[in-house]
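Onboarding guide, step 5: your first structure request.
Type a short instruction followed by the sequence, for example:

Predict the 3D structure of this protein.
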Amino acid sequence: MADCWEGTSERELAAHWHLPEVRLYSVLGSTSDLARRLAVEGAPAGTLVLADEQRAGRGRGAHSWSSPPGVGLWCSFIFRGTHPDEVGRLPIRIALAAARALDPWTDGAVKVKWPNDLFLGVHKFGGILCEASWEGPRLDHVIVGIGLNLLQAEDEFPEPLRPLATSIRVFTGRSVSRFDVATAVISALRPFATGAHPLGPDRIVENFASRDYLNGRYVEILEPESGRSLAAGYANGIHADGALRVESPEGLVMVRSGTVRIGG
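The system replies with structure tokens like these:
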């Protein structure tokens, strides 16, 4: 456990962010793993696990996520009350809400790479991981993990990531307050924790269009485990259910899951 984060205690953060509980840690393997355990034990919707450092942070498809101390926002929410029909749209909803919350520090430059990556320019700086837990046909809870690179310098990324990753500091040339960014992002996501969805499906399509990193790019969608190609063609926005629209030589394909490779 940790006594505080950015000089603020668990109890103070929970009150400031209007959350039922905040769990703080100096170091964790994964905030999502702990949030899942707490959810199974009955922790309420809106419970937040926040770590200064993750040693086993991860993204989609079991990809690791570099989460060093003092430079980012690494946290996971417990969501309850999400309608099962919303599970496919949830990563996009969360990514769009986070992007809007970050506009004051990025001059509105954040783009969303379907379904859940956040980009500045051509580099990734954030990711959303939504993991649903079902009890038979009933959706019990969703763990929403958030990772945002805020203060890293370019040479502080692991060498294999340097051509791919960025931070708000690198992109804008300015340092930001982790506390202020966390407050904006968590405030934007808090309504979703209990199943609220401010935007209808049509508005999701409209809002995504203005942030769409893939639009017009040639993409290949791969099955994560086998690497098998599921579709290839030009990305053309999303459907109201959250599926990626791919204009392939065989016609329009709706892709609801898979790993995106740009350029085929």
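Each response can be followed by summary notes, for example: The chain has two domains: 4-209, 218-262.
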